Amino acid sequence: NQQTRDHQIELDEELAASLQRQYDSQALSQQRAVVNWNSNYRAHLSITFTEAHLIKNYGLMSMSPYVRIRIGNTIYETRTSTRGGKNPKWNETCRCYLPIGCDVIAIELYDDCLFMQDELIAWATYKIPENYLRFTTETPEHSFEERIVLSGKQGEGLEGELLVAVTSK
User: Which residue of 47, 63, 90, 165 shows the fewest CB atoms closer than 10 Å?
Assistant: First the structure.
């Protein structure tokens, strides 16, 4: 019986060592994946879409606007501000990563139409200031607010403004 117990202990130790090697290998692979993944991005952004002040209501009824942004090849959308009209409010935060080589956010505001295709109301291109993309141990993140001027049917920069709060890190 002692021999059987010793043999079982030996098998258990071998199994434990094998499982530990497997775990260590997986942990190292995950660590390498995180390093590679982080090396593709310049910053982590938290963009809060507070509200917009638009010049005109284009619908027969009150508009129900939402925001769509494109950062690199990724598109994000807010929820619809139902009957938000010319002064929609969202207070919605989008968390995303800014790819290396990208410092521009393409912004579009749409009216969420019930029976037709959603209508593009306004648009803008926002270039993130370079100083908000530089990080040190003393300043590991930056927070700022912007009033982004919107273009649309009224003309370049004449459609109103979008208020956003941004944190970059």
Answer: 165
Regarding whether 138 and 55 lie in a shared domain, the answer is: yes
Q: What is the mean pLDDT of the chain?
A: 88
**Predicted TM-score (pTM) of this structure:** 0.75
| Number of residues in the chain | 169
Query: Please, which pLDDT band fits residue 32 given cuts at 50, 70 and 90?
Result: low
Q: How confident is the model at residue 91 (pLDDT cuts 50, 70, 90)?
A: very high
Domain extent at residue 51: 41-168
Phi, psi of 129 (to 5 degrees): -55, 135
Residues 55 and 27 grouped into a single domain: no
Together in a domain, 55 and 96: yes
Whether 93 and 116 map to the same domain: the answer is: yes
